[in-house]
């Protein structure tokens, strides 16, 4: 499933253009200070976030609590960025600007984890529907680690120089919040980062381990709605109408041929129809069926091929089944989309070497991707921004429980908060200090 990464003898100078910071410059009390903070503050904060999740762009109370925690540490905090996002800034002299991001939103899932602090919350989302809400993807860990990082960085201002920007991002689960914050002036109203860091807790990675890609971290994601139109009729007289259920069903089947026949066999791609709704009664042929799709790829050209093929297949199937031109399917690409998230290779190698030296070489493992998950952190580090970024994962499940660990987005999802938050915070603080690079040994 995974293997250890051997970093002994790594030549940093061959990988980087940065001045080098030694892991020996890291305060040796960091691990103990994080452990003490976990017992005193972070454990209860995590429990609060887990018990009180909120949906995308509805994270008002979550943002309020996160902002209050960080503001109390001396940061200049702005709320309401990108609707419900927060931005906290700590200026500490001349030097680079480093951004650390955590996502805040939960999912419309009824929790069945059995945890004593399980969520029972309900909320009306941006779709005006009320649902149970759960942190089924670890964003509670991410926010708690962000607060832990904020505290340790504020306490160690003598060890770094520059500007630290902390971001509490909304609406990652609908891949909309990062773009909303950028459109609201994240890089113009606030110090623009030279480097950006983010972490994700992984239920499929053993606790105490870190996974870092030197290239692709997450796939692109696009949400597509298809409205299939028909002509209503009696279910016993299908020849009198055009059955949109039949048309939609054929479209679903035909969409699966796109990946196998339109892109190269070694190129990954996914088209999943996650929702299909239509009709009102057993014996009525209705007028409409609605499909909701998610589309994933790792390459911009493949992404364009898949999206264009969806348009072609929807229209072609409808025509082949006699749908008139004025009733052809409507295909809509939603704003809930993101390009692939790619790490900066040199920065990733640099951080891996620092983490290996400071946390031990066995903390880093290689682990194959287990799906085509997406992340809108991509907007913060898109090539046109000029910001170098690294997105890494910390393990959330004991090694002996990995085989039975529920997946992310499952109602049974759970991670071990203590090792996840402690390692996530320690790795993030070490990473941020390394990027500030006040003590230069290169």
Structure commentary:
By secondary structure, the chain is of the alpha+beta class. The chain has nine helices and 19 strands. The chain has helices at 12-15, 30-51, 60-71, 139-155, 177-183, 244-262, 300-320, 345-359, 417-436, and strands at residues 3-4, 76-81, 85-92, 97-103, 122-124, 130-132, 162-169, 195-206, 210-212, 216-218, 220-229, 233-234, 269-278, 284-285, 288-297, 330-338, 341-342, 365-366, 388-397. The protein has a seven-stranded mixed beta sheet, with helices on both faces. A hairpin with a 3-residue loop joins strand 2 (76-81) and strand 3 (85-92). The longest helix is centred in the first third of the chain and has 22 residues, at 30-51. The two termini are 36 Å apart.
The largest sheet is:
7 strands, mixed
Average pLDDT, rounded to a whole number, is 93
Shape: elongated
Tell me the total number of β-strands.
19
Coarse structural class: alpha+beta
Q: Which stretches are low in confidence, meaning pLDDT under 50 for 5 or more residues running?
A: 4-20, 438-442
Secondary-structure element series: EHHHEEEEEHEHEEEEEHEEEHEEHEEH
How many helices?
A: 9
Helicity, as a percent range = 25-40%
Portion of residues in beta strands equals 25-35%
What is the CA–CA distance across the termini? 36 Å
- The gyration radius over C-alpha positions equals 24 Å
Summarize the structure.
The chain is of the alpha+beta class and 442 residues long. 31% of the residues lie in helices and 25% in strands.
